[in-house]
Amino acid sequence: MAIVERRSGKPAANLSDPQFYISRELSWVEFNRRVLHEALDERTPLLEALKFLAIFSTNLDEYFMVRVAALKRQIEAQVTQRSPDGRSPQEHLDAVSAALRPIVEQQHLAFSTELRQQMADQGIWLLDYDNLTTAQKVYCHDYFEDQIFPVLTPLAVDPGHPFPYISNLSLNLAVVVQDPRTQQSHFARVKVPRVLPRFVPLPAPQARARKTSTCRWIGVPLEQVIAANVSALFPGMAVQEHYSFRITRNADLAVEEDEADDLMLAIEQELRKRRRGGSAVRIEIQRTTPGPVRAMLMEELGLAQTDVYDIDGLLGLGDLMTFMALPLPDLKAPSWTATVPPDLNRLSPPGVDEDDPWGTEAAEDLFSLLRQQDQLVHHPYHSFSATVQRFITQAAHDPQVLAIKMTLYRTSGDSPIINSLISAAENGKQVTVLVEIKARFDEENNINWARKLEQSGVHVVYGLVGLKTHCKVTLVVRREGQQIRRYYHIGTGNYNSKTARVYTDLGLLSARDDVGADISDLFNYLTGYSRQQIYRHLLVAPINLRYQLVSLIEHEIACHKKDKSGRIILKMNSLVDSELIALLYRASQAGVVIDLIVRGICCLRPGVPGVSETIRVISIVGQFLEHSRILYFQQGGQEAVLLGSADWMPRNLDRRVEVMVPIADPALREDLKTILDLCLADNRQAWDMAADGSYRQRHPATDKESHSVQAWLMAKAQGL
Asked: Pairing mode, if any, of strands 630-633 and 155-157?
């Protein structure tokens, strides 16, 4: 146990005491509550509000598919081990259910009573079928017969037809029909097809019909059109009632890597199981669904009452994301076009010189620039295509480049980077790519990329047994005269051009030889047989990252005892690891001032007397998803600033390959410190965490005093 030394005669605090730790599961619920708040904040433009409602819903879907499913598996296996906050799996499941229900009700109530009215006020009419005009119902009937009816397949349930398998996240109608001859009632399930638009567009009505001159979009939910015409699926039967419901299933993969002769084949087999889904973990159902229908669904799906979520209004609000496609910029956040960093902007753009169509001269300029100075890129403020993508593409076509090595955790479906790697292999370069085929919910996509790369001559590696490779690293080996030089990129985010437009991530482009040598050793560890335990500069999980983080905190404590200058600032997505939390408590007890910028889960309690009085925690939820990881330690004036891929969770520190890199360039260290300071000063999208795990959003006194770190960085990138 971690026991704190006595101070001022007071009893020592046991830092292993569960009272000092917040439930990981409940902390996530609080994070999703902050996402919901963005949808309900009157300052959020309407379509952005719908987007945040959709994100809230899809976040919740994944949470049930993974975290709630894991808790239920632990309960079934009779696991009694308690988490650092002192809860058993059953206690966690009960607490999650109690915390989520009022938030889910708040979401649906806000959408049905507030946001739908705001949509109507802006000429976006999402109508219920019962409120359609006669002409609109005729249109829906014709649309049903032409477009919907041929796709539907009603599935009966009776002694000759067993209860059908209901797929994960599917929206369905539970239909009760009566046979007029026998007067017997029967149950049938009708799946709402995903291949059709969730919201059926209707022809714009005449202005006087709606007593408004504005109609920018009008439509009706697909399931309501099906329900209104469902009798066509049961000719000769009388439809008595119908109710919407939606199922969530366990979707985590279970692969025994040690026993798999072919890991890709094993994962493909698990993916086929996922398409059907594992056991059901949640049912969302119309609140008006009667007891007999409800009981039958629960029994057939193996669900208890605690797994049932009664919904008023529309189910599956994740589909609200489709409204972001409407061409209505006045209802969205101001559009953002990423810029090119000033140093890179001076380089000639590739592909414009007829004598040098692949931009090799520009590549020479780029590599020359990196030999002179490290470059820090910050997405989405800096263009991904003009920085990271350019680095890889130009390396692929530069005749002096001999080899490219890269890790791929997630990438976009139309990845230009994949095409560049294929071109590099076709150009005779040695190309090695570690494709992490265990990346959750991207397994199938990554398997497809791996096959495409292999077919083009790229050496593809699938990672290490028992570990996910989560680091984001690219190494370029280039011949320069008689010398071989390494260039590299280390980032906090995935090599994905789409998420780079909405996630805030940092990347270091450099040619420093010592770090380049470390990266060579890292790839040897990833692709060959290596027990590399020592790196010159890199912090690599699970090798030395945990140890080095402990050393940095302990050194900060020692420095503070000497000159009272201790200062730690950490920016990450999640803080869960109890060992490092206890060490931060120790640092706080020693007097070190600690600021934590944690977007999502935070299991540390700030401001606890005698334990964490000098620790402050904030969370920033804004237009872009805060995803970068930055670590700052004062170190008695010898500042250490690092960036990389790792959050402070046991999985990242012990079960993943992660990389953090110290920033050597003083100017770049100042840039990163500025980002941290801006985050701490944010009073528009920042939330302060209390010791009980709750959050309160900051509000400026006036609009003129509003300070948003994201708005400031956008203005800076534009040179304003």
From this structure: unpaired
Handedness of CA 699, 705, 711, 716 (dihedral sign): negative
Distance CA 263, CA 256 (A): 9
Strand, coil or helix: 477: strand
Which is catalytic among the residues 242, 470, 489, 560? 470
Instruction: Please check whether residue 224 is in contact with residue 190, taking contact to mean a CB–CB distance below 8 angstroms.
Output: no
Domains, in order of start, for the chain: 44-331 (3.30.1840.10), 342-536 (3.30.870.10), 540-717 (3.30.870.10)
The C-alpha atoms of residue 525 and residue 106 are separated, in whole angstroms, by: 49
Q: How far is CA 594 from CA 308, 334, 555, 590, 632, in A?
A: 42, 34, 14, 11, 10
Residues 669-696 have pLDDT tens digits of 999 999 999 999 999 999 999 999 999 9
**Structure tokens belonging to residue 151:** 């796709």
Residue 402 has pLDDT above 90, yes or no: yes
Q: How many other C-beta atoms lie within 10 A of the C-beta of residue 565?
A: 14
Task: Map tokens 């109530």 to a residue.
Answer: 109
Q: Are 661 and 508 in contact (CB under 8 A)?
A: yes
Model confidence over 583-626: pLDDT tens digits?
A: 999 999 999 999 999 999 999 999 999 999 999 999 999 999 99
Q: What is the DSSP letter of 565?
A: -
pTM for the structure as a whole? 0.91
Rg (CA), the chain: 28
Tokens of 161: 């037809």
Q: What is the pLDDT of residues 254-307, one digit of tens each?
A: 544 444 445 445 545 554 554 555 799 999 999 999 999 999 999 999 999 999
Q: What is the pLDDT of residue 602?
A: 98
Is residue 92 among the annotated active site residues?
no
Q: Say whether pLDDT at 356 is over 70.
A: no
Measuring CA to CA, which residue among 603, 605, 600 is closest to residue 588? 605
